[in-house]
Specification:
The complex is a heterodimer of chains A (316) and B (248). With 316 residues, chain A is mainly α. Helix content of chain A is 68%, strand content 2%. Chain B has one domain: Alpha-Beta Plaits (2-Layer Sandwich), CATH 3.30.70. Chain B contains seven helices and eleven strands. The longest helix of chain B has 11 residues. Classes of the chains: A mainly alpha (316), B alpha+beta (248). β1 of chain A pairs antiparallel with β4 of chain B.
Chain lengths: 316, 248
């Protein structure tokens, strides 16, 4: 599948933003969220900024962005519609939580309860995003049980590491957040590893023969001639080839930058003196962001649509 | 409404004979001709005469080499032409994934259509179609697809014999057939039954309405028609002598 930058940015940025809401909401529930005006304001602006920038970016690839509001109507059948509704609905508890956290004297609501509400809506939004891909039967690399877990874990993981880096920046501390981030990075690498092992060892059940309706144990169908000399929409959108060449190297980048280097940096930050160690969390978060963008680029680029079977692909 | 109708009154669709299709592209051309001013008009072309010609087409004809099939007979393989267009599935995920209600399946005849005024151009429906039947119009910013010539088949301005999809009307080898596949007594249903008409990618569960007739088994026992054996053209006289001389 063509890895459109707008969709890669949307899934990574808004995933991290929703992951931040999950982290903050759970920290509030456990009473571990420090009260600090600038930390709370900047963290909420970053979280909602990532979410909003991601959502806006996802509308850039629409043919008619001015009609985007129509996408809220078909929640009965469409995961994309459900995602739109969840994304907008999450703003309410998220804004309420942010205001209650930043201005506890003005707004007296139980922070933990609002926080859990925001966290649940955020998780729900990541889930609906993942289900858009999970539900597409023509794409074997998306239509499998690993996809939803990957999106949920990577969203919470990136969000937690971002919250950790911001707390360091403001000299604040959320108890156990560093080791929790380490565990999330380990979990993230594990689910992604399982996903890669799955797509490396399996192919779609559809074949070039089943694509043209022929069956039989020895039937072999080979493409001789395409219907068109130049790439058409279907080939440009669903026949993306570049990743195959660089897949191994990009996967190494994703593994090291997305998971291993940030984990090593966080381990080191625990061992170092507090002043020095906290600063390591900021480069850890930035390196992780690069790695997760590479991971998401691969998620699209390595996805093979069954329509490629019509154009000479042996498997999909 | 992108929820699917529980049942459609008719299942209008195409039956395509892969035995007789010669890959002449006439169906492709007549489809473009009719539909570029039809229900989903225009079928935009970009750089039509340039190096990177691109455009919207509802029907594409591929050519394959098929081996290991009874249609090959004693030969190792045979050529098979394969027209690919919307199959108007009974379980079309392209409709259910649509977030706006622009895509829909008609309860009356099962035709899958796009309301271009509601389409936001998110392209998700084209991802959800395993067959690559939907093509995005970058110029108009909306998704386009085969309408089964909904503006021909009910069109009372056309002579009755012309009320069939443009691709069917034009096929010079009669490889394309149109009718109600929900009616077991229709000509198309009988044809599918007689020839073992098949679904494309049945394993995905989209339950296509359109059926494809596999190429027929090739008979390698055709009557021998050898040319008569050559006989000496003359046995005596001057010509006989020349014949003997040259045959030496």
């Amino acid at each position: 599948m063509n890895p459109a930058l707008s969709v890669i940015f949307f899934t990574t940025a808004s995933g991290a933003g929703y992951g931040m809401l999950v982290t903050l909401g759970l920290a509030a529930l456990l009473g571990q969220l420090p009260q600090h005006l600038w930390f709370s304001l900047v963290t909420m602006v970053v979280a909602l900024g990532l979410i909003t920038a991601g959502l806006l970016s996802s509308t850039f690839h629409l043919g008619h962005p001015e009609r985007a509001w129509r996408a809220f109507s078909q929640w009965r059948s469409s995961w994309l519609s459900r995602e739109g509704i969840m994304a907008v609905a999450t703003y309410m508890p998220a804004l309420g939580f942010g205001l209650a956290w930043a201005f506890p004297n003005l707004i007296t609501v139980p922070l933990g309860i609002v926080g859990v509400g925001a966290a649940l809506f955020a998780l729900g939004t990541i889930y609906t995003t993942a289900m858009i891909y999970r539900s597409l039967k023509p794409i074997h690399q998306w239509h499998n049980k690993h996809v939803v877990g990957c999106y949920l874990v990577l969203g919470v993981m990136t969000g937690a590491v971002f919250v950790l880096a911001l707390s360091s920046l403001f000299g604040q501390r959320i108890v156990y957040l560093t080791p929790i981030c380490g565990l999330l990075l380990a979990a993230g690498l594990s689910v992604k590893w399982l996903y890669w092992a799955f797509i490396d060892s399996t192919t779609a059940s559809s074949t070039p023969a089943s694509a043209v309706g022929l069956s039989g144990p020895n039937v072999k169908v080979t493409s001789v001639e395409w219907p068109h000399t130049e790439a058409n929409y279907v080939m440009k959108e669903m026949g993306f080839q570049v990743a195959r060449k660089h897949a191994t190297r990009l996967r190494q980048i994703a593994i090291w930058a997305g998971f291993l280097l940030p984990a090593i940096a966080l381990e080191t930050s625990i061992l170092l003196p507090a002043d020095l160690g906290t600063w390591l969390t900021i480069p850890a978060a930035l390196v992780m962001a690069i790695g997760i963008v590479a991971e998401r680029w691969l998620f699209f680029a390595q996805a093979k649509h069954t329509v490629t079977l019509y154009y000479g692909a042996g498997t999909a | 409404m992108t929820s699917l109708p529980a049942k459609t009154d008719k299942k209008l669709g195409l039956v395509i004979d892969l035995d007789t299709c010669v890959g002449c592209q006439a169906c492709v051309t007549n489809c473009k001709e009719w539909n570029t001013s039809g229900h989903m008009a225009p079928l935009t072309d970009l750089m039509a005469y340039g190096a990177e010609a691109d455009g919207v087409w509802f029907n594409r004809v591929h050519t394959y080499e098929v081996a290991g099939h009874e249609a090959c007979g004693a030969s190792s393989s045979r050529t098979m032409h394969f027209p690919r267009s919307c199959l108007h599935c009974e379980k079309p995920d392209c409709v259910t994934v649509c977030p706006t209600g622009a895509s829909y399946k008609r309860a009356s005849d099962g035709i899958v259509l796009v309301n271009e005024d509601l389409c936001i151009g998110c392209k998700l429906c084209s991802w959800a179609c395993p067959y690559g039947a939907r093509e995005f119009d970058v110029f108009e910013g909306v998704m386009k697809k085969c309408t089964l010539c909904v503006d021909r088949i009910y069109n009372e301005n056309l002579a009755e014999e012309d009320r069939v999809p443009a691709c069917v009307l034009t096929c010079p080898t009669s490889a394309r057939h149109f009718g109600d596949l929900g009616d077991p007594n229709s000509d198309v249903s009988k044809l599918v039954k007689a020839r073992g008409g098949a679904d494309l990618m049945p394993e995905l569960g989209y339950q296509p309405t359109n059926k494809y007739l596999p190429p027929r088994a090739r008979k390698d026992t055709a009557a021998a028609m050898p040319a008569p054996e050559l006989k000496p053209i003359a046995t005596d006289g001057l010509l006989g002598w020349v014949d003997r001389l040259l045959s030496r």
